[in-house]
Amino acid sequence: MLATSIFVGYLVFVLTGKGAAFAVANSAVKSLGTSLGFGQAEIFAFLSERSDQMIAAYINFNQVWDTLFGLIYGVMYVVWVSLLFKSH
Predict the structure, then answer these.
(1) What tens digit of pLDDT does each residue of 65-85 get?
(2) How far apart are CA 20 and CA 54, in angstroms?
(3) pTM, to two decimals
(4) Residue ranges of the alpha helices (H) in 1-88?
(5) For the CA atoms of 52, 60, 14, 66, what is the dihedral angle to 10 degrees?
(6) Residues 6 or more apart in contact with residue 11 via CB below 8 angstroms
(7) Rounded-to-integer distance, Cα 41 and Cα 39, Å
């Protein structure tokens, strides 16, 4: 399906590349958005091991690229659900 291919392509070719801009090797916290129940210590650890450029890339990632991820993901599911309940 085209919607799924677009979603996977975006995930593999765009999102992972944009996420590399703020990645720190062997970091305990890769992204605050994917950590459940993180506290002040995890936030300080995340921010302290990244440069100002990396933090700016993380903010950009969350504001732009992660938002597009949600939109593409949502459209994919709308397409799948509409196909599932499509009358024959």
Answers:
(1) 999 999 999 999 999 999 999
(2) 9
(3) 0.78
(4) 2-9, 16-19, 40-48, 52-60, 66-84
(5) 130
(6) 69
(7) 5
> Residue written as tokens 């958005």?
33
Task: Give, in degrees to the nearest 5, the angle at Cα 74 between 72 and 80.
Answer: 105
pLDDT in tens, 4-28: 999 999 999 999 899 889 988 887 7
The answer to whether residues 32 and 42 touch, using CB atoms and an 8 Å cutoff, is: yes
CB 33 within 8 A of CB 62: yes
Distances, alpha carbon 53 to alpha carbons 31, 38, 58, 69, 72, in Å: 15, 23, 9, 22, 27
Q: Tell me the C-alpha distance between 70 and 54, whole Å.
A: 22
